[in-house]
Amino acid sequence: MVRWRGRRRSDNVEDRRGAAGAAGMGALAFFIIRFVFSRFGIVGVVVLVGGYFGLRQIGIDPLLVLNGQTASLGGGQTQLTEADREEGAFVAVILAETEDTWTRRFAEAGRRYEQPGLVLFSRNTVSGCGQASAAMGPFYCPADGKAYLDTNFFAELSRRFGAPGDFAAAYVIAHEVGHHVQTITGVTGRARQAQAAAGGVESNRIQVRMELQADCYAGIWAHDADRTAGILEPGDIEEGLRAAAAIGDDTLQRRSGRQARQETFTHGSSEQRMRWFSIGYRDGSVAACDTFATDRL
């Protein structure tokens, strides 16, 4: 069990679950205005805003008009349970621990670490990269610098993928933060340019290198969490390795009844994901995580 209780919680967590639906509504409003502007220009936005205040004047809540859509976009008005609050606190502590790791490491390189946001949601929400759903799994959006996470994924890790334990959940968070590190250091931009030029199978191979580097960065956080922060207990790293193995492309493809095909991989095999997480944990070195400079993944 990760010793997370009583530790600092990050201020960068935005909870859109349950009664926190207002945050989801704000994101929805921004999404609608951006969509209307892109399709109809400033005139469309004026009409939209005019319609909003017109409904208010005749006593109709515009949010009720959107009720069917807002329900599907998550948030709602369901009260958070004690278990929900516990998960939120855990996520905030783990995010804070990643902040400590990367703030220190960036400072050692003479740079300032720009902390990411992390959005908790239920079922669906809106991100800077478009609509997000629980079916997509956890992901990082470079457009708004936020990771998105439906905490039900933690239960899925245990029940569906056979990877229980709080460190398995921590590994997932640290992996998404790894994508943020890639973005602010320019790795993501260079990789996207290479993918656009390559296309097809080669684009998938570049994506695999991206994901494996994020796994290695998660390992760096685990290195610091163990040796510096002292929050890990025996068995935690094994939980992380089980999680990495459970969500390898080959394992997921076989689980779904398909043959594992390397050319279709986008995240790496179970063995690769375990190996690169282990490299980050063992070496604790950003240089050791350069998956783009090696012939052996």
Strand order of the largest sheet: 1-2-6-5
Quaternary organization: single chain
How would you sum up the global shape? globular
Question: What are the segments in which pLDDT stays under 50 over at least 5 consecutive residues?
Answer: 19-25, 52-76
Percent of sequence in beta strands: 5-15%
First-last Cα distance = 30 Å
Overview of this structure, please?
This protein is an alpha/beta fold. The chain has helices at about 20-55, 60-65, 65-70, 80-110, 150-160, 165-185, 185-200, 200-230, 235-245, 250-255, 270-285, and strands spanning about 15, 115-120, 125, 130-135, 140, 145-150. The strands form two sheets. Strands 1-2-6-5 form a four-stranded mixed β-sheet, with helices on one face. A two-stranded antiparallel sheet has the order 3-4. The longest helix has about 35 residues, at about 20-55.
Give the SSE layout.
Layout: E1 13-15, H1 21-57, H2 62-65, H3 67-72, H4 82-108, E2 117-120, E3 124-127, E4 130-133, E5 139-141, E6 146-149, H5 152-159, H6 166-184, H7 187-198, H8 200-229, H9 236-246, H10 249-255, H11 270-283
Parallel strand pairs: 1-2, 2-6
Antiparallel strand pairs: 3-4, 5-6
Outline:
This protein has 297 residues and is of the alpha/beta class.
Key descriptive features of the protein:
single chain; 297 residues; alpha/beta; two-stranded antiparallel ribbon
